[in-house]
Amino acid sequence: xxxxxxxxxxxxxxxxxxxxxxxxxxxxxxxxxxxxxxxxxxxxxxxxxxxxxxxxxxxxxxxxxxxxxxxxxxxxxxxxxxxxxxxxxxxxxxxxxxxxxxxxxxxxxxxxxxxxxxxxxxxxxxxxxxxxxxxxxxxxxxxxxxxxxxxxxxxxxxxxxxxxxxxxxxxxxxxxxxxxxxxxxxxxxxxxxxxxxxxxxxxxxxxxxxxxxxxxxxxxxxxxxxxxxxxxxxxxxxxxxxxxx
Length: 245
Hints:
It contains 6 helices and 13 strands. By secondary structure, it is of the alpha+beta class.
């Protein structure tokens, strides 16, 4: 596989075209951002860690019948993916109150939700990725009603699997962000990544509200030991996957 030109560079990844127009190469970066890139830094080894975790989780989800853009890994920090047109929505699934949900609703941090909450945010950095109502989503023509229904169903399926998987890792899945894309047949595929950058993960054995954090909140809140937390998540994921084989 030969890599051609840079197609797109985001905050966490660079996408390159390849000699196959249906295949792209995603190069995961060590760069870290928070608060819509107002805070910037670097987490050593993050690119490879997130790429490997995402690849393992995509493989697990594929085994559950959930179609993803994942193909394979040419290198630890690289992922070959199916070319998709990204639906401009950030899909957030919440199991426990944290982050903006607490700020905007007054719910106490750690409140267990009676049922998973699926939220849609407009994927637009200039506007600050605002939370959408369904009417605004359709007004902006970001997705069709059928696509929204499919994405919602898939998000809940993914949540059900991931909650169980992370539980086997001794980790509580608080909330997470997903992105979806449309392939050349207009089929909805899970895209982007699933990693400590996109999930809130708490160590299930730790009660201290700071020590339990195993995700990018360690960077957002200056909690320290960021690399160690990411590495610990990776090791637990690899052990959980290996135990199934």
